[in-house]
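Minutes, project check-in
Item: structure for the 442-residue chain
Input as provided by the requester:
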Amino acid sequence: MDVVGVVGIGAFDALLQVVAVVMTEPSANSFRTLITGWVLAPRRTVIGMVRASGTNRHHAAFHRLLATASWSIDQAGLAVFDLITRRTPNVFLTVDDTLLPRFGLKIFGTGMHRDPVLSSRSHTVTRWGHCWVVVCVVIESRHVPGRRFSLPVLSRLYLNKAAAKKWKRAYHKKNDLMCQMLTLLGQHVDGSGKHLHLLGDSAFTAPVVLGQLPSSIHVTGRVAANVRIHEAPPKRRQGQRGRPRVRGDRLPKPMEMLQQKGLRRMTLKLYEGSTYHFRVATQVGCFHKAPDREVRVIVVEHLRGGRGVEVFYTTDLAADIETVLRRYSWRWSIEVTFHDTKTHLGITEPQNRTTLAARRTAAMGFLLYSLIVWWHETARDEPARSLRPWPHKPGPSFADMLATLRTETLENTSKTYFSTPTIPPGVKKFITQLTHLVSLAT
């Protein structure tokens, strides 16, 4: 008996249908079974998911879904994007890369990559695995106003030069992969009235990258403190000879901006509660390597702590200083997304080796995270119960959401199959305890 007939997951099943519409009916059935097993399984290998789903189908059917079935993970991501942004005219996006450790030399796309968790500025640690570039949509929590989540919609597997040569693929930088995904999103929303705004760190929003992004996408990011800034090029006079100027006169660099007198001092609470005291300088200009886009540069010198001087910018010239800094702080939510998908969804555990399976499995795990958070924020009137409460906890964690989804899934099953009056009270008590234990399995 298949899981679709055994386990009822209520409103969450309707969200799965949003992704399943890009597949054939047999593939959609396998997809729903696999995702249900992914939610319930304590170990997220494909075999573990199949066992947790309760299906009698052979595991090869689910390997074929990932390795050979005819469906597009990008189209699935765009379907999730439409679900999340259907009533949102201004869409904020976050982008970053993350490392998923892998074991084995025959897994497609593996290579040595810098581990950002174990590395520091003075010490670099590399690990064998997959490096993913992920684009997410930022949403604000309905249950906890002010708290934000980054929900993945598109992702690309990055191959370093050695891996690209080994697997005979064209080499693309991480920024190139990001530009591909943003171009795809830009084409998808063209004519819909939606406006995209990218939030990224200096690796993905450097001036040279800004020059490659579509002008229709606003960007808020960080740059180095020695970045060169110029005025916009002067308008060409009628009859003027020679090549037109690309850049205007040079403007003060960020460190020179801080030497001005009478700079404004500010105190802001960012990153969900941390308080920062700083003085700030701002000016409007163009970067030397992106002379076609005018930006507002904001230089922040922290008065406490060891953060020193930070330089931010935005192409949204109408935004004030506080708005720009708050928007940039939303970028941190993508780091929480990476932590939760690895810790609680186990996207590092499946060891698919073939090309399509390697490109789809982790990307499917990212989309599953988006669907679970979206289910919690839209389908539930009350926030998930906190399994591990502590003082000043900002709201339910993703582990709480996942446990609530598991509990409701098992409760629906219990009402359907274990609600007969002939079941002894001792068995009912055992079922209640088992439901609680399964909800805690992460």
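Outcome recorded: The CA atoms of residues 234 and 248 lie 6 Å apart.
No further action items on this chain.
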